[in-house]
Design a protein that fits this description.
- The chain is of the alpha+beta class.
- It folds into three domains: 362 residues, Alkaline Phosphatase, subunit A (3-Layer(aba) Sandwich), CATH 3.40.720; 81 residues, Arylsulfatase, C-terminal domain (2-Layer Sandwich); 111 residues, Galactose-binding domain-like (Jelly Rolls), CATH 2.60.120.260.
- Helix content is 22%, strand content 26%.
- The chain contains twelve helices and 25 strands.
- The strands form four sheets. Strands 1, 2, 3, 4, 5, 6, 7, 8, 9, 10 and 11 form an eleven-stranded mixed sheet that branches.
- A hairpin with a 3-residue loop joins strand 13 and strand 14.
Length: 580
Amino acid sequence: MIPLRLFLGALLLCGATLGAFAASAAPRPNIILIMTDDQGYGDLAIHGNPLLETPHLDALARGSATMTNFYVSPVCSPTRASLMTGRYNYRTRVIDTFKGRSMMDPSEVTVAELLRAAGYATGIFGKWHLGDNYPMRATDQGFEQALTIRGGGLAQPSDPIENERRYTDPIVFRNNRPEKAKGFCTDVFFDGALDFVASAQRAGRPFFAYIAPNAPHDPLHDVPPALYAKYKAKDLTSVILGPGKDTDAMARIYAMVENVDENIGRLMARLEAQRLLANTIVIFMCDNGPASLRYVGPMRGKKSEPLDGGIRSPFYVHWPARLKAGTASDRIAAHLDVLPTLLDAAAVPVPAGLKLDGRSLLPLLEGRSAPWPDRTLVFQSHRGNRPVPAHNMTVRTQRWKLVHPTGFTRESPAADAPFELYDLVADPREQNNLAVAQPEILRRLRAEYDTWFADVSSTRPDNYAAPRIVIGTDAETETVLTRQNWRVPDTGDNNREGTWLLRAERDATYDVELRWLKPMAPGTIEVRAGQVVRTVELREAADRVLVTDLRIPPGELAFTATHRAGKMTEGAYHAMLVRR
């Protein structure tokens, strides 16, 4: 990968400076990219949902151009990596959602970096999920302003313990500093985005706002109460496809979805009032399918599954200045295509040497009859420290779909798991498996997959090694390590012990505060930083321990913090390293 400074230098050499853009005849569009979390294709009224009310999303859809066969990854971090880079997530070191497997290599070039280099104000509001520590934070990857949550979301292992799993009045991070917000989390993120838009407008700068709420992702205990009461009063059994018919959970999910809808209405009204609506690109999409078996339109499947219900997403692009409402293309497209599409729309050239897997969708969104050869898209996600060939994957062409649905939670597929082949033109619900009837197509798609896997797996040396968290820099003098980003052995799924992989940039001394969710019994606390070992006796039960004056030399190291009491061991839930 060519260093970012060379890419940005290439932008300047090819004339992509702020002054050059300002001299162009047409003003550059503003960009707002909205991606919700675990909202499936069927969680919109306009897609036929008979019980959910999404009037503002429906209006956005009717006023937009759209890609009707738009795909994302089966789970969220892989989608977010591809969205930000225009590349398959396996090129970026992001292969899963936790345990150090969702940290993006800092050498990856993001759409925020490219737009910022071209003069755009850049801001993120919500979920980043590509690294919580330097040099992988959103602010390290091109975002000037960030109002974010750590890791996979609120109430997850990276969330501050003091947040107490709140979605309402949560602790969020403004440019990496914690602050107590007021209101439901989705409202907080849209508020932040609206303030950012107003600030960019006052400064006379085009803007790129990435709004990524963590709703309607679980847990479901804290949702907007009035909307919850509204859906609780409805009979929701018809939209629940799985066993159990948990209508209470469904009411809570739909309450969060309608809250997103209300915020989109608020956003569109503000853009119109500020006379920004015509030349602002507003994109709506989802990060994966729904987390439960529920209505997904004319498909089947859910989050983590390579069936269409798990990987199809809405993709609405509202841009009245250039796109005609109702324009639709059925060509297959994906999250990989968003970066090149936005660069094309903003007249920002792709730097020479930057390898993209996506292509600009702008000709299709404009309804032009531009050449568009058939393409092959591949999506794969499963647990584990390394991808396993052909495990929980799909290969999609315009007509055919090869599926190997071997189970996301398994680290390796069952030996006898069959491949499935579907003609999606004739069989959009993926019910008639043609693997036996069409052996030549099956062989061709498997061969294309093998070529793809070899290619993405050889992007860089040690392609699937986790990036290292960097300490000892002025960019992050307080580093919070959480179970979100620790590594566990290649085999097993130990949730009680793990190792953080660090690189110390300088010889420095740290105070280390260790935290657990509950008091630990009397015993010992052992802290290891490479060859440096410190043992502290815990004389009485406690949920936090301070280890002072820990000197860490420069270089790569493994860091562990472990409580031992008898035969029981448990790693720290959080470890804060404060450099002196």
